Amino acid sequence: MDLRSFRPEDRAGVICLWEEDDPNPAPWNKAADILDNKQNYQPGLLFVAEDCGAIVGTVMAGYDGRRGWIYSVVVTPTHRRKGIASKLLALAEQELVSLGCTKLNLQVRDGNEGAVKLYESLGYNVEARVSMGKRLRS
Which CATH superfamily does the domain covering 2-121 fall into? Predict the structure, then answer.
């Protein structure tokens, strides 16, 4: 298992993994578009897990100079419960700390209790917040 920064040759594997995880995305959540945007902005904050040449996990991070964010924590079902997500998160956290990040946020879809348990086991806490969004373009 190789945990590392994304490389251009990982593109097809990452897109496939994300599309399998969310087979019917909203128009603004298409895997290829997200990946292209990430490669244009903070490309060093996308990490992959590779096993025998296949991309089996990802984590994407962002940093605005004040807070960090975690996105796209995805591990293929055949590789879950092996610590891959935890290791990818640790890698992203390490990189964010090196950039000066002192607070990290993430969001979990309502009802995804498995993800909540994972994040709690890694030291994340549920914070009393109201998450709001506004679509600027579709």
Answer: Gcn5-related N-acetyltransferase (GNAT) (3.40.630.30)
